[in-house]
Amino acid sequence: MGDVPVLVGTLGKSFGTSGAFVAGSEELIETLIQFARPYIYTTSQPPALACATLKSLQLLRTEHWRREHLASLIQQFRQGAEQIGLQLMDSFTPIQPILIGDAGRALRLSQLLRERGLLVTAIRPPTVPAGSARLRVTLSAAHSKADVQLLLEALEQCYPLLDASESTEPVHA
C-alpha cells in the first residue's frame, strides 16, 4: 500500500458481490476491530459471499479480455446512441444513463423496451431531481455486440414513439 495508510473499496459493482473492505496496517485494522462501532455492530459476510468475492478477484486478475470486451461494448453503445440522437450523460462506465427529462416519458420508453424483451429501468424523482429522469442502461461482459445492436435498434424504434406532450411530472411510482 506504500503511501496510502487506508484503502477502502466496495464489492458490489466490479466484483459482482456485496459489501466493502478496509485495508491498512495491522495496527489500524486492530483499532477498527476494537473501536469502530459500525464494524462491531455489523454482521460479518457469510463464507459463501467471501468465496464468491475471492473468485471474482481471481477472474479480474486473469481474464483481462472481459474488461476489454466491456469497454468495446460501452464504446459501441455510446456511438450508436449518439447517432440516434439520444442525450447521453457523461459516463464511461458500464452504467450508461440516457437523459429523458420527463418522468412519464422515461417510464413509457422503459415500458416500450420491455415489450421488446429489453430490461432498461427508468430512474426518476425522487431518486434524481425533477426534470432529469433517465433510462439506466447497464452493460456487462456477458452481453454481446449483437445484444447492444438489438438495444440500439429498439431505442431507435421506440424513442420517436414518445409523445412530447406526455408530461406527467412528477411520477414517483
Model description:
The structure is a single chain. The protein has 173 residues and is an alpha+beta fold. The longest helix is centred in the middle third of the chain and has 21 residues, at 64-84. The protein has 2 domains: 6-62, no CATH class; 64-161, Aspartate Aminotransferase, domain 1 (Alpha-Beta Complex), CATH 3.90.1150.10. It has helices at 26-35, 37-40, 47-62, 64-84, 103-115, 145-158; strands at 6-10, 20-24, 87-88, 95-101, 121-123, 133-138. The mean pLDDT is 91. The strands form 2 sheets. Strands 3-4-6-5 form a 4-stranded antiparallel sheet, covered by helices on one side. It has 6 helices and 6 strands. The N and C termini lie far apart (46 Å). Helix 4 runs parallel beside helix 6.
Biggest sheet strand line-up? 3-4-6-5
Any idea of the CATH class of the largest domain? Alpha Beta
**How far is the first residue's CA from the last residue's CA?**
46 Å
Per CATH, which architecture of the largest domain?
Alpha-Beta Complex
* Overall mean pLDDT: 91
What's the total helix number? 6
Order of helices and strands: EEHHHHEEHEEH
Helix content: 40-55%
Fourth-tier CATH superfamily name of the largest domain: Aspartate Aminotransferase, domain 1
Number of domain modules: 2
Compute the number of strand runs: 6
